Amino acid sequence: MSSTIETPLLPYPITICGLAELCGHAEAGFTHPVSILDPVWPDPAEFAAWQAHRRVLWRFDDVVERANGYQAPVRSDVQAILALGAELRTEATARMLIHCHAGVSRSTATAVILMAQHNPGREAEIFAELRRIRPRSWPNGLMLRLADDMLRRNGALLVELFRHQQRIADAYPEFAELLSRFGRAHEIAALNRAR
Which of 83, 99, 86 is nearest to 50 (CA)? Predict the structure, then answer.
């Protein structure tokens, strides 16, 4: 199974991974690595071994509701993602790698936002592509709520996010249970209520 998005949705390929997978990508020739880290997390040392690249670093916590003690993603974070997507829209030679801590939530939400940016009405295709390359993905819902509003999708991204979560929870119940124990219990409960 490929870990890279290579469809007409984007002019450049995207690979998604977590911190533990970074060392395996040092020689892959990524031109635009994107790091999304908790505010206090140290910078990964792995990038010192990478070939020449233009790295982007964003820092916010993987939370889907604003809470004291956490730096939630905000509109300016999503705007930065959209600005990068606009900049790279004509760079067919770009190769992007997006990572967060586990390659499950913030990185996958970023990939969805980049694919959605210039593809209105293709939300179902976007999430199908995400499932193909990152089957155990659970995109950050707050990031997608912000993007849905900023891209004027009238809830289309959120409808497909919910369908995506249902598919993932059904296919990987142990993964859903793990998510439930680590701050996403309300999302799992919403899926159960909808059944």
Answer: 99
**∠ CA(92), CA(46), CA(21), 5° rounding?**
75
Question: What is the distance between the alpha carbons of residues 190 and 166, in angstroms, rounded to a whole number?
Answer: 10
Do 34 and 58 touch, CB atoms closer than 8 A?
A: yes
Mapped onto helix, strand or coil, the DSSP state of residue 119 is coil
Q: Which amino acid does the sequence have at 65? A: E
Instruction: Scan for tokens 């996403």, then name that residue.
Output: 184
8 A C-beta contact, residue 158 and residue 127: no
Q: What are the structure tokens assigned to 131, written together? A: 């499932």
Q: pLDDT tens-digit profile of 93-140?
A: 889 999 999 999 999 999 999 999 999 999 999 999 999 989 999 999
pTM of the model as a whole? 0.91
| Residue 118 identity | H
Residue 109, CA distances (Å) to 23, 51, 68, 164 in order: 22, 26, 22, 12
**Adjacency order of strands within the sheet including 32-37:** 4-5, 14-17, 96-99, 32-37, 56-59
How far out from the chain centre does Cα 47 lie?
Answer: 20
Residue given tokens 């990572």 in the structure block = 99
H/E run at residue 99: strand 96-99
